[in-house]
Amino acid sequence: MANTPQAKKRIRRNERRAEVNGNRLGRIRTFVKKLESALAAGDKDAATAAIAQVQPELARGVAKGVLHKNTASRKFSRLTKRLAALG
Question: Quick one: DSSP state of residue 86?
Answer without folding.
Answer: T
